[in-house]
Amino acid sequence: MEIITGTADFYINDETAVAIGKFDGVHIGHRALLDEILKQKENGKKACVFTFDPSPAVFFGDGKEKQLTTREEKREIFERLGIDILVEYPLNRKVADMSPRDFVVNVLCNRINAVYVAAGSDLSFGRRGEGNAALLRILAPECGMTVKIIDKLLYEGREISSTYVRETLEKGDMRLTETLLGEAYFICGKVTHGRQLGRTLGMPTLNLIPDESKMLPPRGVYYSGVMIRNCYYSSTTNIGYKPTIEQDKPVMCVETYVYDFHEDIYGEDISVYLYEFRRPEQKFAGIEALKEQMQKDIAAGREYAKEK
Predict the structure, then answer these.
(1) Closest CA to 104 of 150, 142, 134, 60
(2) For residue 217, cis peptide bond before it (omega within 30 degrees of 0)
(3) Helices 28-39/71-81 angle, 10° precision
(4) Which residues does 113 contact at the CB level (< 8 Å), separation at least 6?
(5) How does pLDDT run across 186-197, given as a tens digit for each residue?
(6) Taking the domains of the chain in order of start, what are their residue ranges?
(7) Torsion-angle region of residue 72: left (phi > 0), alpha (psi -120 to 50) or beta?
(8) pLDDT reported for residue 196
């Protein structure tokens, strides 16, 4: 996948089919848009995703809203789904003040060479969000573009949105979160050195420090899976501050015990998939009590993996 980022000075030679959106979470509503442009590959078009960097929510907001997917995670998903080109268009005041017509003509047409555009029915673009799906339909013929507007998908009567996903994630409802996303919620990052306590206890873990922009589910233990060097392993994961051990300046950490895996992969990138919440984080009386509970969590996790 080609990634165009950090610049507005580019031109795509191939004709493209473009999906426009924020794509936070890349949930099944977003994937309906992606399916539309992926179909156009059969007609010789390059499947292109257009999104802003930073996102409008960050640029116009206070920057504190956590993201369901980091930039790196979005890239991983788009590439896995078969997207050819990802445009992370720089959002600044000049771009934010661009008229809807200028956006369609100067960006979608003249830069991205779009001949097919897929967008959601809640599309908003251009200065003060003046552009919408109806206006895109009106402007598109000037550039010879075909427009496909996708209605919101519903789940049990409610529109699927990033807000909906956030609500389910905050509750620790990982099954519903997975249903809305189309895959299990995951966390990407580099394996870092911890205090080696798990190794001392005979249960070595892979430790990630999540990106500070990443939204996390409730602290506690989860049945999970992990991708390491393109291989999948079942696992048990703890998300939290390790209250039994860390007394001073605790750091949020994602610790994963991978079943039957014993390699040294410090500094390598992994993805941890969270399937089901087992129990909340808790502080134990001592190391032995913690070890006993970890053994129970891992045993339960192994049984879960057999049934999944």
Answers:
(1) 142
(2) no
(3) 40
(4) 11, 12, 13, 14, 15, 16
(5) 999 999 986 665
(6) 12-157, 184-307
(7) alpha
(8) 60
Tell me the CATH number of domain 12-157, given options 3.40.50.620, 3.40.640.10, 3.40.50.970, 3.40.50.300: 3.40.50.620
Give the tens place of pLDDT for each residue, 191-236: 998 666 555 566 789 999 999 999 999 999 999 999 999 999 999 9
Global pTM value: 0.91
pLDDT digits (tens, 9 = 90+) for 125-183: 999 889 999 999 999 998 999 999 999 999 999 999 999 999 999 999 999 999 999 99
Tell me the C-alpha distance between 181 and 130, whole Å: 29
Q: How far apart are CA 208 and CA 269, in angstroms?
A: 9
Strand-by-strand arrangement of the 206-208 sheet: 185-190, 269-280, 220-228, 231-240, 253-258, 206-208
Residue type, 160: I
User: What's the mean pLDDT when you consider all of the chain?
Assistant: 92
Length of the chain: 308
Per-residue pLDDT of 96-106, as tens digits, reads 999 999 999 99
